[in-house]
Specification:
With 173 residues, this protein is of the alpha+beta class. It contains five helices and five strands. The protein folds into two domains: 42 residues; 94 residues, 2-Layer Sandwich (GMP Synthetase, Chain A, domain 3). The strands form two sheets. It has a three-stranded antiparallel beta sheet, with no helix packed on it. It has a two-stranded antiparallel ribbon with strand order 4-5. Strand 2 and strand 3 form a beta hairpin.
């Protein structure tokens, strides 16, 4: 897809959102069910079932997906798609790109070993390896716009409003 095709595809969508901001608000959902045989959660991905379990550093077998890995994978996917879309819109000569995310976890927090140890990533690094002959100022603009428009990056950069609730179902209701 070239810049003109991308802009033509997105123009009516952008116009709709300019005219009615409410139409731009979309609720995405993820759903999963706990596994009754092991400490795992079966997540519906829309394409297949992904089974998430404990990371080996917390006693998991390593056979199930780790949700921390899935978070980094979501960041890589979003950043890669955003990078490609921005490069296309800017008519940026991007022959190839690799996206890598890595994060540091202290599992003492997750396991409750040390109350002062954080639960969750203490640092996440996102890196791009670009095959391009574009000048540095264009590369800088590409990265700045990718960071700005990457939904996952922005979500973990600026803490969104979070809520947790529970409802009773089945025999307990």
């Amino acid at each position: 897809m070239d810049a003109a095709a991308l802009k033509a595809m997105q123009a009516p969508i952008k116009e709709t959102y300019r005219d009615d901001a409410g139409k731009a608000l979309v609720t995405l959902r993820a759903r999963g069910a706990i596994d009754d045989q092991s400490i795992a959660c079966k997540v519906e991905t829309g394409r297949a079932i992904a089974i998430a379990g404990l990371h080996p550093a917390t006693g998991g077998s390593g056979l199930e997906l780790c949700s921390g890995d899935m978070l980094l994978e979501a960041l890589v996917a979003c950043a890669g798609v955003t990078l490609k879309a921005v490069a296309t819109a800017l008519e940026f000569n991007l022959r190839d790109a690799t996206v890598v995310a890595e994060g540091d976890l202290d599992f003492r927090g997750t396991l409750g070993v040390d109350r002062d140890a954080p639960v969750g990533f203490r640092a996440i690094r996102l890196a791009f390896e670009l095959d391009t002959d574009e000048p540095q100022d264009r590369i800088d603009a590409l990265l700045k716009l990718t960071e700005r428009y990457c939904v996952v990056f922005q979500t973990i950069s600026v803490k969104p409003e979070l809520t947790v609730n529970a409802t009773l179902s089945g025999a307990a209701a």
